[in-house]
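Collaboration report, partner site 2.

Our partner group contributed sequences for two proteins of shared interest, and the home lab folded both. The records are reproduced in the order in which they were received, starting with the first partner submission.
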Amino acid sequence: MLDFAFATREEILQHLGARLRAQRLAQGLTQAALADMAGISVGTVKTLERCGISSLETLVRIIQALGLTDQLQPLFELQHRSIAQMEQAAQSRRMRAPRTTPRAPA
């Protein structure tokens, strides 16, 4: 299993593409069938599986077509590890950008 914390961007992309390919094959779908279900071209599926390159929209279309949408839920959720971090996160949500006021002439 690839440890994403120590992997390069290219390694992560290729690994995620391979995971999507494994999901497609586990469901007995061809690349053409998946492309049709997702409303994208076969070439786009091939590129995603081989290199991990796609737009975010394309990735979501494929995830929906594979029925894996529920696995997106925990993605990028804010993780709190301590009370101090929870307090800091709460404060950061309340902060506003400072107002820009014109400077008085000198």
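Second partner submission, folded after the first:
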Amino acid sequence: MSNRKRRISLALIVLFVLAFAQSLCAQAASVASAPTPANDTSARLAKLEQQAADAKSSADNAWMLTSSALVLMMTGPGLALFYGGLVRKKNVLGTMMQSFALMAIVTVLWALCSFSFSFSSGTGFIGGFHHLFLHAVGAAPDPDYAATIPLQTFMVYQLMFAIITPGLIAGAFAERMKFSAMVVFMIIWSFIVYDPMAHMVWGKGGLLNAALGGRFPTLDFAGGTVVHITSGVSALVCALYLGKRLGYPKEPMPPHSVVLSFIGACLLWVGWFGFNAGSALAAGSLATSAFVATHFAAASAAIGWAAAEWIRNGKPSVLGGISGAVAGLVAITPAAGFVDPMSALLIGLIAGVFCYWMVATVKARFGYDDSLDAFGVHGAGGTLGAILTGVFASSTVNPIFKDAAGNTLPSGLIQGNAHQLLNQLVGVAIAWGLAIVGTLLILKLVDLTIGLRVSDEEEIQGLDLSQHGEEGYYWEASA
């Protein structure tokens, strides 16, 4: 073999050996970098856990957005129709406009500052300025309020409560307050009464916050004190301050359309599932429990009111039936996430009879003109429900329930205790006091500046024409 051929053969052998060695190194590196079976399992478990957390967050967020829409539906069209049907024909548009206007006005206030005053850290009585103009309110959750949904979702859900609460007050001064006075009154009332009460019961560091270590932990699942006592007691103050409608009680003032009120009450019943079950802030078993309690209480209260009316008057009225259902929904609101179904039935039954007595007997005895019984249903029903929550709350339903030492009670240990009942009474007293004092101050301020009540001529003409220049029943004019 020539020297040239030998050199070529040797070169080929060297190239082959180098290629083979490079292949072996690559395989070795691949083996070395491949994860061990233990690492692979950990990575897969972490990925599955993240996917499960993302799925739960999406489900909870979907439920909370749905609940937000349900609660907004309670104001418009629910409350607008319910109250609109109870007034006389000449005031139907003016009454509905009050609910609609609050949907717009309170939304703007909430975005600018009220959410911050209610739910950012501050004192035991009022929140701070951290969330002014919705600063830092975005996609990230706040674990103190709801760990699985964006803080922005929590914000918009709580907005719907802030909208309907002042709207409930309008039932007491229906047919006689100026629209301009109503707007100014509601704006100031939201700042002075609603925002502090919401912070005390639900906000970080709130005096009455049961979940975050308040000094007097008051159990209020969905707003018995925050929504119904404040609005109902404020309604009574408004009715007393403004005085009676012209002709009341000698002149008959029946509802112009119980049909509209019937539709509104049914919408309120449906929307209340978002109000109460949504307050679980997650799509879990607690939401189911609150949903069931809400429905059962409304049903038994409707029966209780209708039965009491049947016994007294010889006939159960449609208006009585729907008023009873609303009374039951009011009373179960603070208790919905703390009581079992049988307790909910009992709370509803008691509320139906009690609120009927407040409307049919107490109101007549004292002679105040609470036009649409806002106090008799919401003030009285909210107070009753807040107190009965301390009697029937069960750690089987919700482990937030604590003993006198602040320790969480074992499931099923007891239902209610004296210490918690005392805390409930403290919460009720604060809600009553804040509503009375705050409302009186606001009414006096508005009365001294722009005046509260329409003139006698405007009241006789009706709010539709005198305040808005429109009529709700054009077909009658042309008939």
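Feedback sent to the partner group on the second submission included the following. The mean pLDDT is 90. Residues 37-86 form the longest helix (50 residues).
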